[in-house]
């Protein structure tokens, strides 16, 4: 049993995702194919990196993640495959795997150069179909990571914004807005432990709110902050959009006291 | 062979649905995963209940339906699992299974309390991933319904609007607008038989139309009423939106003569 | 192992696609189900025909394609099933398979008349669920094409716009706009060979641009033309929408020099 997942900025209006799935099933007919999302904003590598990092933990070991947010397709940017925490990842070397590389001790990265694994002819504009998916399908079907090409020691990396804390205050920022308008931050539960007493208040530029535990806790239409399902501090409005209400965007400062 | 379906209000912009699928495949790697829809309006329990009721019949017996339209997640609302007509259903006890309970004689309902079946740690905001999906996957993988927890005898129920009929007229209402703008009603073909003669005319507040059999029957842009593919009276505009044309919303009165 | 794909104009807001998948798995529980897209504009048979033609090549032989863009459902329009290039196709006889028929020498077309293969009762408004999907699932499960009904020798055909060329100029037109706003044309790489020297310039009504090879080749926000991943001349704006920038729609003239 093997699982191949797909994360792209292709949308679902055209046939692009389906073409990748056709190629995958041609190589590994028994694979279970799962969509992460195809609604990443066009070329938004940072959001794709975040989404991938948030969901990879819920998939079984040996899952292969094919990621195609690839504004540099056809240029000199490299293609890479990596293994981290028992799972495999295939895509462009543009930083989309940065957070996996930063957080996983056993991460092994290879440049993809073995064109025996590619779909031919390789187009200049759709490496998702011609390189990333076939390499991912071969990995899911028993090909070793060594076989894709040489070790890569200098992958492209996106730096994450840092969290600054004293024993009384934590300063971080919004890093992702989900479809409900919840604003996810780079502050996670581990930072909370560095405070001398449990935090109770969260401040953003335009509002201050209490720290709660679940959405239904406050009246419909009111704001709260909570540690969400992936362990991140999140600013939410029960039944509404916190991003819209407070004008929150990635980069907005968030303070916990 | 087992099938697990997913019905949520999560949209497909983020990783939430994928996280549930990763959890499901971790428990039952051979399951076929099918999306019902993820585009239920946020927290619209009644529409989710309707959609579930409309499509469940087309799935094989033994299919498991995981439903996550759950505005009360993290609060005291219970989690339930039920078996009806040979199929299983897992989700919050908020009325989303009301129509199944009302229409199925052999319906058996259990409260979900056995946390051996949960994903740990259980978050306060994503029971879809941590409770409903793992319980559903275990049910699809051979765990018995008894094992999830004790019988539940007082589930939350949503009342459906009633259809009133004499031998010459039927009064019902719109209950769902589909993506084409067709207005589905709570009037089904069985009620038609209670009229002393076959109906021919359908009236709404702003229009009167003939009762036909299929969309292409009337000229493009014209309205008709018909018994649709799920046996419900539906108000449609060939190639257009009846909801938009006539200002139809759930609750709008519909009269058949 | 068998694959069944679905291409419709149903959207993903309701339960219609899921109903077809439930029916398919009831007949062939081992089938892998793949969505092509459900976002074809309502009743846009020509776009559906184009999308199908673009993606079918990437799927393994023996794949079954169920196509439900069917504005004439319930009328006298016939249902057909065909085999071409080792793959099978099932849907309405409204021209949606025209390009497959035109381009495949070994194409065998049958009218669907054997109602033993249908889901009963057959509704007047959802042949996707009651006829096309069950017939497709039976084909994927070993039923022969002969079994669906008699040969069809006069299928409905959509004519494609023609490409005109001399040895110095090619005249074609836009045939599809993808979700990025790229404008795909009916000019493919084989026509390029008919020119006495390699082309370098592409003209549309409102602009002239160079012929390149990949998006990242020109600065962000600038336009280029290229042979895309399906071998078609495409007009693109790096990181933007060519359709929006230049007001391009299907039918717009494109000249290559």
Q: Can you walk me through this structure?
A:
- 3 copies of one chain form a homotrimer.
- With 257 residues, chain A is α+β, with helices and mostly antiparallel strands.
- Chain A has 2 domains: 3-148, S-adenosyl-l-methionine hydroxide adenosyltransferase, N-terminal (Rossmann fold, 3-Layer(aba) Sandwich); 164-256, Beta Barrel (Elongation Factor Tu (Ef-tu), domain 3).
- Chain A has 6 helices and 14 strands.
- Chain A has helices at residues 16-27, 45-55, 98-103, 127-140, 189-192, 242-246; strands spanning 3-8, 32-37, 64-68, 79-84, 87-92, 108-111, 164-165, 170-177, 183-188, 201-204, 207-212, 223-227, 232-237, 253-256.
- In chain A, the strands form 2 sheets. Chain A has a 7-stranded mixed β-barrel.
- The longest helix of chain A is centred in the middle third of the chain and has 14 residues, at 127-140.
- Chains A and C meet through helix 1 of A and strand 2 and helix 2 of C.
């Amino acid at each position: 049993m093997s699982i191949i997942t797909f994360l792209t900025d292709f949308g679902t209006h055209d046939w692009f995702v389906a073409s990748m799935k056709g190629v995958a099933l041609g190589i590994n007919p028994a694979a279970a194919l799962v969509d992460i999302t195809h609604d990443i904003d066009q070329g938004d590598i940072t959001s794709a990196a975040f989404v991938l990092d948030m969901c990879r933990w819920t998939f079984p070991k040996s899952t292969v993640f094919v990621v195609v947010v690839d504004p540099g397709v056809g240029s000199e940017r490299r293609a890479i495959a990596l293994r981290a925490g028992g799972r495999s990842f295939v895509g462009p070397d543009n930083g989309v795997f940065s957070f996996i590389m930063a957080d996983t001790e056993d991460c092994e990265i290879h440049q993809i150069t073995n064109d025996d694994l590619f779909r031919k002819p390789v187009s200049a504009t759709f490496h998702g179909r011609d390189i990333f998916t076939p390499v991912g399908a071969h990995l899911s079907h028993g090909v070793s990571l060594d076989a894709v090409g040489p070790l890569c020691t200098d992958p492209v990396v996106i730096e994450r914004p840092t969290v600054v804390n004293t024993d009384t205050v934590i300063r971080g920022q919004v890093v992702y807005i989900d479809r409900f308008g919840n604003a996810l931050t780079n502050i996670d539960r581990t930072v909370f432990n560095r405070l001398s007493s449990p935090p109770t208040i969260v401040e953003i530029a335009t509002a201050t709110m209490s720290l709660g535990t679940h959405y239904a806790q406050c009246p419909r239409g009111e704001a709260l902050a909570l540690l969400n399902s992936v362990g991140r501090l999140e600013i939410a409005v029960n039944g509404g959009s916190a991003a819209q209400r407070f004008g929150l965007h990635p980069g907005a400062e968030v303070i916990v006291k």
